[in-house]
């Protein structure tokens, strides 16, 4: 992808004047209307808001270079271009993640104002399912996302991926099976929030028994520091007893002097931990009727850059000085 990019225009009108003073269509209105969907597709495909923005920027440049007079359906053209670029980009992204230091987690996005993030449904947006999607081949991932999040027909998916309609059905069916095999019955959003709050309370107190009571037997804790945050665990910690003792071991210093902000990212409750006004970690969980299955901490600064507390829904910021 090009390093230097022309910034996306902010003007709401697509009517511009050429050198002769006549109006021409620069395609902005069509692009602006499709932009939320384009970002929603790219983010689900890549799990990175920064990479999704790069893709959308490149689609805009390609749209500018396209003979738009022959494009019958601009939104479909733009979505198709976005999807195909994401499939190509996924190959290099996979290589980078194979050498990533420590566990890789998706970059959080603010969904407090747009719970579905540019889609008909909020499917394929939560952290746990994004991790499962990472394991699928890019074409299979694309078919699943277009079908489950954006309600594309199999005919439309086949056109986007340049395959037969029956192949689209097979791809979506395989993806559904892979997701179902790796995903437990999810707890309700209210229960997820309750368990997250209970986890934070028990973790702050270093209460091993309370932590164990919240966890599923095979709970796993992930910390994404990208190799630049020393306090992030370089490997996942798993098992009810081990994870409980892990959190209790650093409770006395980790929670001292921090501010907790309850936020919504990726359509689920999360807690943003800041020290001296600087975000240091964002934590969330995935839970089922068996308890908390996964604890996920995003700590790499570049992944927290887009999380702004004045834009997210915050509930009762608290100060914790022990």
Overview of the molecule:
This protein has 322 residues and is of the alpha+beta class. It contains twelve helices and nine strands. A seven-stranded mixed sheet has the order 4-3-8-7-6-5-9. A two-stranded antiparallel ribbon has the order 1-2. β5 and β6 form a beta hairpin. The longest helix is centred in the N-terminal third of the chain and has 25 residues. The protein is elongated and about 65 Å long. 38% of the residues are buried.
Quick summary:
This protein is 45% helix and 18% strand.
Shape designation: elongated
List the secondary-structure elements in sequence, H or E. Answer: EEHHHHHHHHHEEHHEEEEHE
Structural class comes to: alpha+beta
Spatial gap, N to C terminus: 48 Å
Total helical elements: 12
Layout of SSEs?
Elements: E1 15-17, E2 23-25, H1 28-46, H2 49-64, H3 74-98, H4 127-133, H5 138-148, H6 154-161, H7 165-182, H8 189-205, H9 208-214, E3 215-224, E4 237-238, H10 240-249, H11 251-254, E5 258-265, E6 268-275, E7 278-288, E8 291-298, H12 301-304, E9 315-320
Parallel strand pairs: 3-8
Antiparallel strand pairs: 1-2, 3-4, 5-6, 5-9, 6-7, 7-8
Q: What would the keywords be for this entry?
A:
single chain; 322 residues; alpha+beta; two-stranded antiparallel ribbon; 12 helices; 45% helix; elongated; disordered C terminus
């Amino acid at each position: 992808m090009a390093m230097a990019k022309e910034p996306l225009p902010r003007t709401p009108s697509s009517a511009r004047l050429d050198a002769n003073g006549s109006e021409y269509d620069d395609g902005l209105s069509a692009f602006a209307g499709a932009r939320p969907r384009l970002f929603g597709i790219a983010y689900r495909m890549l799990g990175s808001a920064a990479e999704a923005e790069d893709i959308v920027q490149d689609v805009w440049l390609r749209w500018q270079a396209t003979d738009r007079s022959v494009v019958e359906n601009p939104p479909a053209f733009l979505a198709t271009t976005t999807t195909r670029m994401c499939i190509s980009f996924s190959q290099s992204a996979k290589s980078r993640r194979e050498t990533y230091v420590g566990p890789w987690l998706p970059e959080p996005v603010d969904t407090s104002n747009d719970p579905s993030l540019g889609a008909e449904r909020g499917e394929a947006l939560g952290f746990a399912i994004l991790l499962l999607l990472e394991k699928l081949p890019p074409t299979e991932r694309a078919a699943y996302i277009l079908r489950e999040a954006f309600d594309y027909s199999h005919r439309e998916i086949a056109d986007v991926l340049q395959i037969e309609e029956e192949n689209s059905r097979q791809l979506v069916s395989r993806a559904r099976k892979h997701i179902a095999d790796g995903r437990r019955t999810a707890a309700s959003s209210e229960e997820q929030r309750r368990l997250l709050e209970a986890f934070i309370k028990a973790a702050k107190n270093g209460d091993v028994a309370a932590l164990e009571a919240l966890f599923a037997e095979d709970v796993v804790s992930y910390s994404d520091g990208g190799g630049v945050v020393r306090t992030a665990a370089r490997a996942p910690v798993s098992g009810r007893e081990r994870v409980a003792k892990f959190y209790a071991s650093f409770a006395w210093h980790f929670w001292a002097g921090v501010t907790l902000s309850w936020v919504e990212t990726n359509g689920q409750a999360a807690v943003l931990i800041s020290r001296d006004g600087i975000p240091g970690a964002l934590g969330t969980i995935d839970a089922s009727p068996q308890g908390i299955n996964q604890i996920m901490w995003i700590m790499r600064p570049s992944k927290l850059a887009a999380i702004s507390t004045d834009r997210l829904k915050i509930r009762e910021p608290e100060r914790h000085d022990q």
